[in-house]
From TrEMBL:
<dbReference type="GO" id="GO:0071111">
    <property type="term" value="F:cyclic-guanylate-specific phosphodiesterase activity"/>
</dbReference>
<dbReference type="Pfam" id="PF00563">
    <property type="entry name" value="EAL"/>
</dbReference>
<feature type="domain" description="GGDEF">
    <location>
        <begin position="159"/>
        <end position="284"/>
    </location>
</feature>
<protein>
    <submittedName>
        <fullName>Diguanylate cyclase/phosphodiesterase</fullName>
    </submittedName>
</protein>
<dbReference type="InterPro" id="IPR035919">
    <property type="entry name" value="EAL_sf"/>
</dbReference>
<dbReference type="InterPro" id="IPR001633">
    <property type="entry name" value="EAL_dom"/>
</dbReference>
<dbReference type="InterPro" id="IPR050706">
    <property type="entry name" value="Cyclic-di-GMP_PDE-like"/>
</dbReference>
<dbReference type="Pfam" id="PF00990">
    <property type="entry name" value="GGDEF"/>
</dbReference>
<dbReference type="InterPro" id="IPR043128">
    <property type="entry name" value="Rev_trsase/Diguanyl_cyclase"/>
</dbReference>
<dbReference type="InterPro" id="IPR000160">
    <property type="entry name" value="GGDEF_dom"/>
</dbReference>
<dbReference type="InterPro" id="IPR029787">
    <property type="entry name" value="Nucleotide_cyclase"/>
</dbReference>
<feature type="domain" description="EAL">
    <location>
        <begin position="293"/>
        <end position="548"/>
    </location>
</feature>
Amino acid sequence: MSVNLSVVLDNIAAPVIVGTPIKDNTGKIIDFDIVYTNEEVKKAAGFIMQNKPKWSDFSMNITSDIPWFKMALDAIAGRFYDDIKYFSPSTQAWYKIEMKYVPSEKYIIITFINITSEREYYRKLKKTLITDPMTGFSNRTGFADTFAITLETARFKKYRAALLVVDIDNLQNINDSLGSAAGDQVILDVADVLKQFQREYIQIFRYGDDEFAVIITNFESDDSLVNFIDCIFDAFQLKQISVSGGISMFPANTEQKEEMIRFADMAVHYAKKNGKNSFFYFEPEMQRVFIQHLTLQTKMNEALLGSCFTQYYQPQFDIQSGKLRGFEALIRWHDDELGTISPAVFIPLAEESGLIVPIGKWVLRTAITTLKTWQAKYDFRGIISVNVSPIQLLCDNFLQELEELILEYKVDPELLEIEITEGVMINNMGDAIDKLRHIKAMGIRVSLDDFGTGYSSLSYLQMLPLNTLKIDKAFINDITSKDGVQATITRSIIDMVEKMGLETIAEGVENKEQLELLHKFNCNFVQGFLRGKPMPYQLCDAYLAGDVNALLKN
């Protein structure tokens, strides 16, 4: 009895595809001709193939997530894949992919084995493992599986999808200051807000300790998505919960799952950098900036390892006598490829990446080494002021390392000044104040930089153990303007600080008119291009040796 193999294969429940290799002139396999498909393939693929297409034409219509061509080449070589799975939006079923090579006929046989019931069993078993016990939402693992299926379905049905990542602002600070119970309550409050919006096409996940993910599908237009996202944000504002959110869209931003997640995370990061408590949609410019920052961070690592940073020193002068008070140590970075990189660009990135800690250690050690050298060569009794990042200051071992440097180089601690910014007041204020008091008790001076540009208030000044207050350049720029507003403010600051027993340094003094007014206001010290620009060690050394022409001025 003859057997009609075509009829047999068409009645097999599993989709089957048969292909033959296509070779170029050198005998290299470059593609496969599909010579046969059974009826089940049409159901699983969701369309009917015409004219026996090439495998490269057909495979991308199934899914781009599977390395079809490589699998076929490996099957010919006798290597097989055991765990390649594919979800068909057409049949809403999961298939395991098997490939076998028949050398005698030169056939590649691809079989799609339906494993939906098996996966459903394990899905139910797994549900207990992927549910967040605190909120009842699926956790990050559940999100990964669901998001993959969502995008495959959206791609097949050609509808829009979006991912919203919601990050709770300052949760760590809440845990540190009020306790973990207070932090847990904020998490539950965020979950309660999001539960209001859970629908068939809106799925919510506990994405991380302080993050939630919202998958939104099948919305009619970008405007309808924006309106929905606005409703979620307004609900948080109504409950007075501060969150930062990032949104990426399919297919407008990308059709790839990992890119969707990465782009939403970039948008969250952008929201955080722009003051928090806001939602941002991903824009291609964010990716360009991200790549630029990543490149800069890599180069910063290399510069740190290769000792490519240099230290400059800007002189400070007594405004009454004109005598040198000392120098502020300023880090500089020149890259062979990127040129000179401003500290205003790389310092915030260093703080964000954590590199500010090793960089800060290098700055502090270099400054103390310089102070030791000048003490020995010139009996230098001026002050070396060193900027210390809030992140560096709050490191557990900062005080110990500072003490060890003072002992190692045997410098007079009264000639060292730790310069902080108002950022120390943002995170863990109590710890920062305790450390500054310890520093002052060691005999080291403490200076507050950039006063008036951030979080400063009279209460902060009274709490911080300061010796010196630096008036920011923003106040000095217009001090000579005719309306007199900046002059009045600056004079008030100087009078107030003087009554508190603190010294004042005016930054950014660039002309004689500014200097004369500051002299009249009884400001103690000045720093700026009028009296001296930041200089490399060699010029400072020459100036201390008696060469007054070594000083760089306007």
